[in-house]
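User: Quick sanity check before I run a bigger batch. Here is a single chain. Can you write out its predicted 3D structure?
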Amino acid sequence: MPLLEEIKRRNVLRIAGLYLVGAWLIVQVAGTVLPMFGAPAWLPRTIVVVLAISFVPALIFAWVFELTPEGLKREKDVDRTESITTYTSRTLDRAIMALLALALGVFAFDRFVLAPQRAATLQRQKSEEVDTARKEGRSEALVESYGEKSIAVLPFVDMSSNKDQEYFSDGIAEELLTLLAKIPQLRVISRSSAFSFKGKDVEVPEIAKRLHVAHILEGSVRKAGNQVRITAQLIDARSDTQLWSETYDRPLDNIFAVQDEIATAVVTQLKVKLLGAAPKAKIADPKAYGLYLQARQLSRQRTPAGFEQCIALYQQALAIDPSYAPAWEGLAEAYRRQTGNGRRPLDESVRLTRDAAGKALAIDPDFAPAHAGLGRIAMAYDGDFASAARHLEHALALEPANTDIIASAAVLLASLGRLDTAIALDEYVVARDPVNSVAHANLGFFYRSAGRLDEAIASSRYVIDLSPGYASAQFQIGMALLLKGDPAGALAAMQEEPEGWRVIGLPMVLHALGRKAESDAALTELIRTQEKDSAFNIAYVLAFRGEADRAFAWLDKAVAYRDPGVSEIVYITEFANIHSDPRWEPFLRKLGKAPEQLAAIKFDVKLPQ
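Assistant: Done. Predicted structure follows.
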């Protein structure tokens, strides 16, 4: 008998059809029902795999066995004259039709009943996210649903016996974050937001909800001598289930290969399609690398002592491995920070910063953070916006999703008078760094400069929620209230501001209230205590009070002192009273900041897709 006829006689094809229809029905029901009961994400996938694997054994079973009135028998043991396969085939046909009808019913129920309910739930979640965005002072345009390819890297736990390797465990996590952030197709939450949960008893799903991500990468590090054990696990935060986990026992020399392996595993698990080669960790001498991680942790303290210690450690690392570009860039950033806190003479600090960043680029011409550092120096201290634009444009071409570089680009765009684009960039930064108070503060400042006063106030209030006592937040609220015509509210806000910015804000608020003697006294105190450090601020206080002659005199002082605030002059609203003064545009032109001069500077920035 031909094989096909025998397959038909034994009802193998009917069993195949019945199996496929039944399997499809099971998969549809499981995919719809299991999530309603909070089942882990792996369970529906496991059902599909089991059904697929079982298909061939089911066909073999149909070929080998036959259903008889006495029950199942091996087909070879059944007398052909007593076979009931014809009757069984009719039964199977009826079963297939019944299952098909049931499957169509399930499909219709899902399509016309459950799908609208899911859409309504998604819309409700979207509305909740919009409400949250408004509370945080963000525009609705930047609200995003959880992206499948989104991740936050939490600080790894220090599992060393003496608990003295936190700088190393944090450093490994940050290096992984930086590595993953170089993949444009992956939305990676910035360090400041991801690390803000360090030491806090917050469950993974809640962290993911606050950071607007679908996945969390966490782990631990145990370092002993030249050996290191790194454990990493990738979690689907929506179901709180583990997607992948691995433990690496390696000598320190192989630490960079481990970082590459973990990054590759994450990309594989999240099914990210790379458009180019996968990014690789920068390799260094292991001892130099350890010193680099220690130095970077100290630099994050943002204290004079911390900068001095981190500079010494960077120098030790570079004495061991002078070809490690990140250490040169870290040294440049530490020198630049010393400029801001007055711990080193300005000219010396700028020279050292430029020299260190230059050495980083001599080693690695495509090291984006070093290009960005030179751009910041050109913008704030050289007043050379064209050079700053070239450096930052190059840095963004190398690392288009780097939020630190994007934030610097936003400042430059605002300084060029292109506030709408600057706001769009800062909204992008806030979306990827949602609990970073600095990012929200910058966005609030730009909102105020653009006249979006309610959003400016909301952003600054959210900054205070994130970081109570944040310097300048109440100042920004007060100035926005002044522009809204509420000087009494502005005074209340300014009195809540810590001393530094309060001293700057009070002369303006008291002037708006008509309390001239108190305003004069507050201005005298500002000049007495902050003449050299705040010459630019004094200039705009005088401009706000309508004292044009004194305002221009203090602007000349600010230029002479190389006050970095001068770079922001075109978007500081407090100068509005002297914009019509005949000296205003010539002064801007002398600085290279007249409208036509700024318009001629090419700086085209596009947000990453």
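Residues 150-282 form a domain with the Rossmann fold fold (CATH 3.40.50.10070).

User: Great, the batch can go ahead then.
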